Amino acid sequence: MFNSCVQKFFKDLNSIGQFTASLKWQRSLRCEICLNHEHFISHGFIYKQYSSERKEAVGKRIVCSNRYGHQGCGHTYQLTIADKLPHRRYFGVVLVRFISLLLSGHSVCCAYSQATKQSQTRHAWRWLKKLNDNLMHYRGYLKVPIVGKIALEQAPDFTYHRCLLTTLNALTSKEGDGSCAAFQISQQIAFI
Ligand SMILES: [Zn+2]
After folding, report:
1. How confident is the model over 30-48, as pLDDT tens digits?
2. Which residue has the higher pLDDT, 63 or 51?
3. What pLDDT digit, counting tens, does each position of 67-118 carry?
4. Cα(78) to centroid of ligand 1, in Å?
5. How far is the centre of ligand 1, averaged over its atoms, from the C-alpha of 40 (Å)?
6. CB of 59 within 8 A of CB of 51?
7. How many Å lie between the centroid of ligand 1 and the Cα of residue 2?
8. Ligand 1 centre and the CA of 31: distance in Å?
9. How many other CB atoms are there within 10 angstroms of residue 21's CB atom?
């Protein structure tokens, strides 16, 4: 029996290290692209850069190698700690703060600037759209009936997004600050 996909989210760096150190023996690990399972090699750390001097490891890469005698496809996978939002600047805990502020009645822009400490709020609506896009995944995770997406343009006032709000409330009251991490570990897909 082979896993259908590569695990992308891990509890912490230590768990990623243990996983990448044992790639040779991970017989159930199969590349999603070429379906090979014998050519994975560890391929260095992923860092979050805070400044020119300060960076922090948040994950590692593995590659289905097509070099040095390997016959994989060359595809690279990013394995990250569960609280890191892939391809995003902020950690999950900041997104949970944004959601909590929305739930307590703050406007979208106000919630974003308080959560991120940024005065530019154009990404606030992108976050909201991504949350809305993932609504059915959240409901699947919570095991509540899946409803259709809510068209944001039809309900520009956020207070009308009852279904999204109710879902986010259920989601964040379950795990608090660790809600994004818990979701990403359990579902193995990005929270946003
Ligand atoms: Zn491959």
Report:
1. 999 999 988 999 999 999 9
2. 63
3. 989 999 999 999 999 999 998 999 999 999 999 999 998 999 999 999 999 9
4. 14
5. 8
6. no
7. 14
8. 5
9. 10
Calculate how far, in angstroms, residue 72's C-alpha sits from the geometric centre of ligand 1.
5
38 CA to centre of ligand 1 in angstroms: 9
Q: Which two tokens stand for residue 97?
A: 């703060």
- Rounded distance from Cα 60 to ligand 1 centre (Å): 17
Residue 74 in contact with residue 65, Cβ under 8 Å? Answer: yes
DSSP classification of residue 84 = B
Sign of CA dihedral 103, 106, 112, 115: negative
Residues 53, 75: Cα–Cα separation, whole Å: 30
Q: How far is the CA of 76 from the centre of ligand 1 (A)?
A: 8
pLDDT value at position 146?
64
d(CA 91, CA 58): 10
Contacts 24+ apart (CB under 8 A), 131-135: 131/99, 131/164, 131/168, 131/192, 132/161, 132/164, 134/191, 134/192, 135/163, 135/164, 135/167
**Average pLDDT, integer, range 134-144:** 91
Neighbours of 104 (CB within 10 A): 8
* Sign of the dihedral through C-alpha 160, 163, 164, 170: positive
Confidence of residue 159 (pLDDT cuts 50, 70, 90): very low
